[in-house]
Amino acid sequence: MNGFTRKIFAFVSLARPVNFLLVFAAVLIGGALSGKIGIHSLIAAFSAALVLSGANAANDFFDINADSINHPERVLPKGMLTRHEAIIFAIAAQIAGLILAFTIGLRTAIFAFWAIALLWGYSLWLSGTPLVGNFVISVLCGSALIYGALPSGVVSAKTVWAAIIAAAINFPREVLKDVSDIEGDRKAGRATFPNKFGIRKAVNVAVIGAIFAQMVILIPYAIGIYSQSYLAAVFFASMMMWFGIIYAVRGYPEQGQRFLKVAMVLGVLALAIEVIFGGK
Q1: pTM here?
Q2: Which residues contact 123 (CB under 8 A, 6 or more apart)?
C-alpha cells in the first residue's frame, strides 16, 4: 500500500464507513416510512452521512488523548493522519453536508444546521457531561429518520416511532461505551457518568435503558402502527439487546455495547422490512 492509498484509507477510517452506511440507510428508511422517497431523499441521505462523518472526525480530534488509551487502533493515535488533517476533513464534510441540505430546501438546511451545532456542542462540552451527552447523541441518532422524511413534507407516525426506537436503543449503548472508555476518559479529565458515579451505577442505568428500549420497540406494533412483519424482524434486535444486558451485568460492558450496536443494525433492518412488507 503506497502513501496515497494509505492516506485515503485513513480518511475513510476516520469517517467510520459502517456508521456512514447506517445513517444513510436510516435517512432513506425515514423517508420511505412517511410514504415517499426520491432524488431529494438520496441527497438528504448523503447530507446526513457527511455531517456524521465530519462529527466523527471532530470527535477524534478532541478525543486524541483519551483515544490513545481507549482506541489506539484509530488513525490519529496511530499517526496515520494529523490532527490538522482531521479537523479540516471534519469541517469540509459538514459544510458539504449543509450545502446538500440547502439544495433540498430551507427546512432541511435548518435541521442539518441544528444537528451540526449539537454535534459540535457534544464534542466541545457535552461528551464529558454525565448522561446529557449520551442523551444528545441518542436524540441525534433518532433524528436521522425524521430528517429523511423532511424532503417529502410529511413526517408520519411511522417515522416518528422509528426515531423514538432508534434513540431508545442507542442510549444504553452510549452509556456502556462510557464504561468501556473509563480509563482514557479519566486521563482526559472527562466527568462521564461512570467516572463520576462509578461503573456499577452506570451499568444499572444502561440496563434500565435497555429494558425501556425493549418496551419501546413493541409499542408501535401494539397500537397498530407497525405490522406483524416488523414484529417478526425486530425480535432479533430484541435478542441482541438482551445479550447486551446480560454481558453488561456480568461485567463485560465492551461486549455489551457491541451487542447493542448489532441491535441497532437489526432494528434498522426491521424498519426496512416494515417499509417493504408493512403497507401503509
Answers
A1: 0.94
A2: 55, 58, 59, 61, 62
